[in-house]
Amino acid sequence: MSTIKLKKGYDLKLKGGITQLEITGNPATSSCYGIIPDDFTGIIPRLDKKPGETVKAGEPIYHDKNFEKVKVTSPVSGTIKEVCRGERRKIEAIIIEPDGKDEQIKHDISQPVIDVLVESGLWVMLRQRPYDVVPNPDVRPRDIFVTGFDSAPLAPNLIFVMGEKSKYLEKGIEVLSTLTDGKVYIGVNNSEITISGAEVNIFEGPHPAGNAGIQAANLKPVNKGDVIWTLDIVTLARIGELFTTGIVSHDTVVALTGECVAQPRYVKSTIGCSISSLLGDEVKDDARIISGNVLTGVKVNVDSFLRAPYRQITVIPENNNPDEFMGWASLNPKRFSLYRTFTSWLCGKREISMDARIKGGERAIVRLDEYDNMLPMDIYAEFLIKAIISFDIDKMEQLGIYEVAPEDFALAEFACTSKLELQRIVREGLDRMRAEMA
Questions:
Q1: Where are the domains of the chain?
Q2: What is the dihedral of CA 240, 245, 247, 252, to 10 degrees?
Q3: Which of 279-293, 304-318, 358-372 shows the lowest mean pLDDT across its residues?
Q4: pLDDT given for residue 283 in this prediction
Q5: Strand ranges (DSSP E) for 179-226?
Q6: 156, 208, 303, 326: which has the highest count of C-beta atoms within 10 A?
Q7: DSSP H helical segments within 103-211, as ranges?
Q8: CA 229 to chain CA mean position, Å
Q9: How far is Cα 339 from Cα 177, in angstroms, rounded to an integer?
Q10: Considering the entire predicted model, what is its pTM?
Q11: Residue 328 has what pLDDT?
Q12: Residues with Cβ < 8 Å from 274, sequence gap 6 or more?
C-alpha cells in the first residue's frame, strides 16, 4: 500500500456522533418505501409500473428515457401505492406499500456483466466523471475508483456498515475489472484493511479525503476525454454478492446521528424506508432532519424517505438561538469559527453544537483562497466557480470542470464567506456542460 497525505480540508467535529460499533434493536420496518428519481442524477425516468400494480424486490420500477436498459428497481415486494408528481408532471417520488412476502427477483449471472448490473438496478449506484451522473453503459471507463471510508461529519463507518458482506469484495473487484482496461483503485484510511485484486492506497488527512473523486484526483486525475467510474465499498460488496448469489440485497445499516438524536446509533433497515420508521417520535418540531450528512445531505421531513445513496440520517437544531446577545459580534467562547475569529480555538478541536442557520447573505466573491484551502485537488476552485457562473466553456475545461462533482465543493460551501450555494452552482454547470457537449 502507498500512503497519500492530504493537508487541505477540515474535519468538522459535531456533537451527536456514534460511540459504539453495534446495531441497536431489531431491523426497522416501514409501512411504505419510497424511490426518489432525483437521487439518480442523469436519468430521465419513464415508468414501467403504474399505481396499483404489484412488484417484486429487484423488479424494475422505471427506466431511463435515453438508455432504456438502465433501470431503477424496487427495494421491496408489494404494490405501487402512489406516483407523486410536481411541476410539469415531474416524478418526485414513487411510493411502494410492502406485502411482507419479500419475493425476490433472481438474476441470470451468466449474462454479460453490464446487462446483469443494469437489470438488477445496481448500475444506478455508480457515478461517472465527467459530469457526476449515472454512467453511460456504452462507454468503457479508463479506471474505477472505490472509496473505503466516509470522512464527512458524523459519517458512518463503511466497513461496519458493510459487515459480513465483506466476503463478497473480491468477487466485486473481479467483476469490475472486466469493465475497464485500467485498474480498480480502492482508497482506505487504515493500513489494517487488506483487499486483494485491486490497487489499495491509504489516504490520510481531513475531509474530503473520503470522497472517491478526491482520491481519483490525487492518484490519476481526469482529463478531457477521460471517463472514470466511482462508487463506495458497500456498493462494491453488493455487486460481489449479486454475482455470487444472483440476488440484490436491499438491506442497509443506517447511522442515526446528530445532537437532536436521543441515542446516536446504527439501525438495520431497507433502502427507501420511511424516516419515521427510523426515528419514531424522538425528534422535536424545532429540529432539522437531513438524509445524509450536514454538508451534502438533503433536508427532509419525518414523513419522507431514506434517500438511496445515503446510509445516514442527521438531526440538528433548526434555529436554537435566534436572539443571541450581540449576534455576530458576540464574544461567547463556545462559538465556532473556521478562521479563529472567536476564542473557542484556544480550547482545541472539541465537539461543537451547530444549528442550521446560514448567518449571512450572498455577497461578492472575495479572493481569500478559502475554496482552495478546503479542496485537495490541483485546480483553482474560485476561478472555476466564476467560469461556471459565466458559463465560459473554454475556461471551465482549462480549470478542471471534468474532474469535479458537487460533493467536492461541499466543505468549501460551508467555509464560503460569500455564502454562495457552490454545490448548486457546480451541479448546474455540469448539467449545462453535458447538454452542450451532447
A1: 2-245, 370-437
A2: -50
A3: 358-372
A4: 81
A5: 184-188, 199-204
A6: 208
A7: 113-120, 158-162, 169-177
A8: 14
A9: 44
A10: 0.94
A11: 66
A12: 30, 31, 32, 33, 34, 303, 304, 305, 306
